[in-house]
Queue: 2 jobs
Job 1
Amino acid sequence: MEGVTDAPMRALLTEKGSFLFCVTEFLRVTDQTPPVSVFHRHIPELGNKSLTSSGTPVLVQLLGGNAQRLAESAFRSVSLGAKGIDLNFGCPAPTVNRHDGGATLLKFPKRLFEIVSEVRKAVPKEIPVSAKLRLGWSDPEDIFENVEAVARAGASWVTIHARTRMQGYAKPVFWNHIRRVRELNFLPVVANGDIWNFQDFLKCYETTGCEHYMIGRGAVGNPHLATSISRFLQLKTHSPQQGKAPDSPSDWRPFIERFVTLSQLHTDKPEYIVRRIKQWVKLAMMERPLPWFEELKRTQTLEECLQTFAV
Ligand SMILES: Cc1cc2nc3c(=O)[nH]c(=O)nc-3n(C[C@H](O)[C@H](O)[C@H](O)COP(=O)(O)O)c2cc1C
């Protein structure tokens, strides 16, 4: 997630080994293939065989509408060590969409086919090439034709965020469409959207019947969530050990301290780390109230910010 799951956050969230893999924030590809330095800055894990510090594979996500440049960028990513390529056809940001990137491509199944085909051809067959789709631009029924296009082009799997672009992040999330796509057996389907806690996951599991799930905001808001889900998926039991979502400042403290340590490996700007911590807690508040955020919000220096968690 752009601006959220950067390298320190990926390192933190994968430390328990609950994720099969993670995906970078999108790297935008326009009419130029980004230089090597940009890949290394965007994906520091390339310097570690494309693994997070605890050994979870990192897939590089590319975003754009130029099939040739995307194919070159995919080739460059893999030459630098990327473990896989994910293509973003879901981003709803107007500036991105105006520049022929993200969800705007959902209007053109032929272009999805062309992009996935070119990227597939550009990288060795053992490297997965996946596509991240929303259900459509405005019509959720477009998902069927779009998935058929990316499957025919050779995508390894498709991750479906079960909303249209026009919905943005508004409810409802149409998990039922994911089940219908899965039942067509075109290719493996990863379910995504609004899994905020373990109960949501169970509902999504029962509705979609998928084997794999992509957890975005919920995984950041509750760093224990992926562990509960991965235990369930391996054991297929309804009584997983549920990691309680951190609530009080002291529940959050170990995560925050670890995040600061990991962030300091990448930045010498404490004010940036403070911003990220506030953003993180705010995101968690989309699922549950954290009234002490008001106090956190007013802090300015990293020391003041960490004081909030010292209680
Ligand atoms: C701030 C933000 C940034 C995002 N950036 C990306 C991105 O770079 N690539 C991507 O595929 N999806 C991105 N997404 C979408 C998420 O991956 C996911 O599809 C969406 O949030 C729904 O899943 P969730 O409810 O589990 O978060 C972003 C979402 C948010 C809220």
Job 2
Amino acid sequence: MREKLLELCSRYAIRLAEHVRLSERTTFRIGGDADFWADVNNVSGLSALIRFCREEQYPYFLMGRGSNILASDDGFRGLIIHLDGDFSQIELMLDADSMKIGAGVTLIKAANTAKEFSLTGMEGLSGIPGTVGGALFMNAGAYGYEMSQIVTSCEYMDESGWVHTLKADDIELSYRHSFFTEHPGIVLSVTVLLTPGNQNEINARMQEFLNKRNEKQPLNLPSAGSTFKRPEGSYASMLIDQCGLKGLTVGGAQVSEKHAGFVVNTGHATCADVLELCAQVRKKVKAQTGYELELEPVLLGTEGM
Ligand SMILES: Cc1cc2nc3c(=O)[nH]c(=O)nc-3n(C[C@H](O)[C@H](O)[C@H](O)COP(=O)(O)OP(=O)(O)OC[C@H]3O[C@@H](n4cnc5c(N)ncnc54)[C@H](O)[C@@H]3O)c2cc1C
């Protein structure tokens, strides 16, 4: 299997690394080794790789910036696919106030490009430290902005390596949900419709949201952002705070003192520490408030809670 994979990667100019520490590739700074990591630059290489994994029945996982991932201490017995090259490009359609954004482009780069061309609609998304593909997957959002408000279509690759286009309605975007949370598929690009605006005002809004993040979030410590989804009718951080759980610690994992909605890695947290801490938080919140909290980050290589 390994030899065939090496040969395929060399044929398609895919950069392949072995035994890659997931703690070095995720914002939580947690996770053991993945067997293989492939940086894929174009559709033909991706299609060949997906077909190969299917034929060999070899597990693969698509990783963006790893900013919403909790990776197992045992790592991942399979191939991590990371999009680069053609997937890091932005195509502007200025006559239509539209941008076709490669799935590997970061939200900050996409938002900055929109700003450069005086297009408004991405300001609130600009501080989210992920890629456009990862943002579509979870319908990422903040400060009243959400991917669902601007997406008109996307291109994705299915498990057999074929490319399809989905219109906005068929992407089924809702709170932290999309077509891709229910079906396998790799987002290749996302087309967004923006609105002409004033560049200074766009810039001011982006700055305001970044300042809010710096002020409210524990950005000095590794995390995966909000640890729990917003339960219907309340806010996870408010409930956790009400239950007096700020500062609760298991090993190196801690409910942030600054923002109760974040579990942070204070130094040497393991995935097991985070899962145990989250289990304690969920139990106490359920007992004291009746709300069920659901983990937001995607678990990689672990059975989870
Ligand atoms: C400090 C901090 C603040 C954050 N603030 C916010 C916030 O305000 N709002 C918010 O919504 N999120 C927030 N997040 C979480 C995270 O940044 C977002 O969910 C982001 O969209 C994840 O993108 P990513 O590229 O890092 O995806 P990853 O974490 O790499 O992957 C997440 C999931 O998306 C899938 N995925 C990634 N790329 C693709 C693709 N091309 N095709 C198909 N599936 C794909 C992965 O397989 C995985 O299941 C925050 C995280 C941190 C660390």
